[in-house]
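User: what does the whole thing look like in 3D?
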Amino acid sequence: MILNTLLDNPDQILVNLFHQGAALLQACPALVIALGILLSTVPLVAIFPACFAITTWLERKGLARIQNRIGPNRAGWFGLLQPMADGIKMLLKEDIVPQTSDRLAHFLAPVLLLIPAFTVLSVLPFSRNMIPAAADTGVILFFALGSISTLPVFMAGWSSHNKYSLLGGMRAIAQMVSYEIPLVLSTVTVVMLTGSLNTVKIVEFQQVTHWIEGSNPALQILGQVLKWNVFTPWGFTGFLIFFISSLAEINRCPFDLPEADSEIVAGHLTEYSGFKYALFFMGEYVSAFAISGLAVTLFLGGWSGPNIRPWWSEDPRALLIPGFVWFFLKMFALILIMIWIRGTLPRLRVDHLMAFAWKFLMPLALINIFIAGAYYYLPHWIGWPAGLIVIYACYEGLGRINRRHLGPKRIYRYA
Amino acid sequence: MNPASTLPESPVLPPRDYQVYSGDDLATNVLEVAMGPQHPSTHGVFRMDVSLDGETVVKLKPVFGYLHRNHEKIAENVTYLSSMPYTDRLDYFCSMTNNWAYAMTVEKLTGIAVPERAEYIRVIMAELTRLQNHASLVGFFVNDLGASGTPLLYAMREREHILDLFEWASGARMMCNYFRFGGCRNDLPPGWLQQCRKVVDAFPAFMDEFEKLLTENEIIISRTQKVGILPRPLAINAGITGPMLRASGVDYDIRKVDNYGIYNRFNFRVPLGEVGDCYDRFMLRLLEMHESVSILKQALDSIPEGPVIGDVKARNFRPKVGEAYGRIEAPKGELGFFLVSDGSPKPYRYRVRPPSLINLTVLEDMCLGHKIADAVIILGSVDIVLGEVDR
Amino acid sequence: MLGKGIINGLTVTAWNFFGSYFSKSRLTTVQYPEGGNTVTAFSRNIPFLVFDDANAPIDSLRCVACKICEKECPPQCIYIVQDKDANGKLIKSPKIFDIDISVCMGCQICVEVCPFESIKMDSHFELAGRDRFADLLLHREQLAKSNDYYHKIHPAEAREVDDRLAAKQKKAGPA
Amino acid sequence: MNIAFYLLSALAVTGALLAIRLRNLVHATLCLMFFFISLAGMYVLLMAEFIAAVQILVYVGAVGILILFAIMLTHHITGATRERISSRGWLWGLGAALAVLFTVLLPVLLLSVLPAAPATPDFSPSVRNIGLSLMDPYTITLQVMGLLLTAALIGAVAVASTSVRPQDKPRT
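Assistant: Here's the predicted 3D structure for the full assembly of 1153 residues, as structure tokens:
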């Protein structure tokens, strides 16, 4: 009896298992709550560090292949044990704390960075009714907790009493604070059109439910893919602005100024070694997962992907492939793009970084909000092309305004 | 043709007395940072004592000498031939051009003739050195900008092909010690010229890819244009030579001025910059690589057969009393050797004119007023190699 | 278009990423211990002394201990002591011939100045030793290698040297 | 439910106390931010998620960081040095505090008539209601607040920019 309800809609297997488990523990409700809490936190704390390990391997292999090298292939098969080797090495490395440093702040910085990195994950909808904390104010909670991560970076920079890390810390503050504005403004468009801050509603807004529940399998697949926000003009620009600002929020290239290794040695991480450095490293990667997870939820349709209904079940909402498969696939696609960008682009200078945020991204995000508003009222066949044209015009216009001081393209004479 | 007059005047910089604004309320104090010998982007053991007002460079004092190996004093106690291997260690990126400059100076001192084939080999080796030096320089320069090593490794991949050629001909990849007074140590092994032709033909494909990756990149353009401007009068007065001088618009290439070796037989052009900022220096080196490829093609087509070295005694080689100064267009600038001989097998005085050191003297003028991130890439665009700076 | 340069750059790196899987010219890494012989015919590392017949290596050394290479060597890393026969008369072979390979930079000056073709450059490069002083100071026995070893590593050069020696032998023989 | 309340309020009180007593200013600010977070926890207990999120966003994310930024970047006031105001008078301070407590606070607390049952919870706290109420009855206050904030922003920029003299501007 249990088996066929589980098999009835395969993508809800884990959720149904939880319900069966809860039914068994009917005796005392406290245990059911405990099981609920456990099931929503333990996977987060287990899966995401595993993703962190996989990504370090992916990054080193990807960067190596971009640079025509082979990348780690000695530790284990194809270098797959390299993350474990790095982890053990980090554990064994001596944890040097400079004598003049402010001990408490130096110790607290990595801890304070991990707290927002992990708590922020609780807001992301991994699959249909599989969301750790279905908060009605999901997106605002995400940004509130995300903004805490600025503090530990600066604390690390300041507390190590080293000139380079002080410079790194100041750059980190300036960069994170000023890139939060375009980040939030680009989400305003999605929230405005969905009409709610709840992440689950945002994902459901990007699905055409009557097609999904219809009989025609082609329409089912289209229903889950066609209505993603990224395929609308305002959605695509919003996604670009969101992605670029998220690169700045997590200090990834081309915005990795706080730990610019060619200028200020390792920025705020100069005086960190051993496991504290590994914690910083993990904090950066987990917040990269979190913010690309939000990008997937807001613009790439969360857990909905080209999915077919299993022929043996008559429940219209059943799907074959569980939602979280699509969620993690899209998230890793964004991570791969970040790695690709890291392999190509050089770093921005501090004042260009500021000018880019305040003079280019923010105005573009504001214009994007107007276009999203107009898109909402205009019929689609007008809204789509008009939106595209207006956005492209603003994109080029702002670009030209910001690059006036550079002068024309250089032509070189030969003596 | 008077070089200075024809070009538009590049912007003259305000005077160097940049004071820190210590007004009444928001005076920020100056941060003294020693970007010391142990720093990821100083191309070797070189220290810059930078004092920063916030991020802007207020004062910059280059400190070098960490790699001083007393090369010139040793050369005075060792025979002429024995100091040839030491010239490889001057600018360890282009050992072939160092050997050529030293061999040419001794030939000028003693009047030894160099056979035809040896002259062609020297031009081929020098241009191959220029290719791999400029390629790896552009790689290091973009690496200082922050691209995590990708252009550098593309350049290193091409440099490997050229270093394999050097190893095949001279026995060592970087410390070639291949030229002798009056020619080369041994003839090119059979099959070397065909392999060299293959490498030279494959080079333009790499350069198109390299330029497509770098030249229109908006981030590189906004970070290098109008940064580290070297005005033409300052460049001429400070004795700057090589791509840095030509980037400021002065038409001075020793291959054209002196016509040493057999450079007058090849037609090649000398690219010139306009503003003289980091972007011009970066583009100059890419354009010079194109020119070197065309020279190599012409040289490989017309290299004759014949002996590779005149009849020079290896042991107790005693040049007549006198002095000579020979200079060539090394990839970094004008590399010169000044030899005074008193008739004994050991030179009386042995002096090297290092282009990197002299190009380094204007570092502070270029860096004032810029951010610390710019100071790093201005140093990168000057292209110094500490072996040559400290000798 | 504003982002054209950046997009061009991204296409180049993507092209290289996939290229490194297919085209051989891109992926040039040689996995050293496993495969790929990186030694070419002319490469030179550390000198060695040539002897002619294998069953009496030390006596048939070509070296006559004339100490020219000891004088000419730029970093002065060769040390020679001439051998004496039973009643104290100097004979033409080295009793001690040491080369400190931690100092030697493989510049081949000793090979050029040696009038008796007795010292040649070896292309063997795995010279690591445990003890910095004892292991890196090679004595006459470790330096001596046979002529056919020389033919094996530098065939063209070895044939040339043999012809020269044969010519000198013929000229000196009848006189 | 009230265990959480007692825990949070205990955290809040210790945070506030430490914020006053600590010698090192940076640690004091950290405890202040700890206090703000426990306050946000209490809002969550009151089912006001939006206010909790905004509390963290505004106080911890912005105000706390700016205080820290100011402390860390001006010299010699991080409190690590010896001279501190430690007059013997803290006894008088305690006495004054207790006096205020008994004469003013307690009578007000005890005598005022609180409604016995909490107001009927028909008003389900949701962001939508906050948004709607912001729009119809309180639109003008929203606009005025916007104007005030922009004025403050422009003032800050004006103060900061005058410190760089025109001729000191870097050449690019």
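In plain terms: Residues 84 and 90 of chain C are 4 Å apart (CA to CA). The longest helix of chain C spans residues 4-22.
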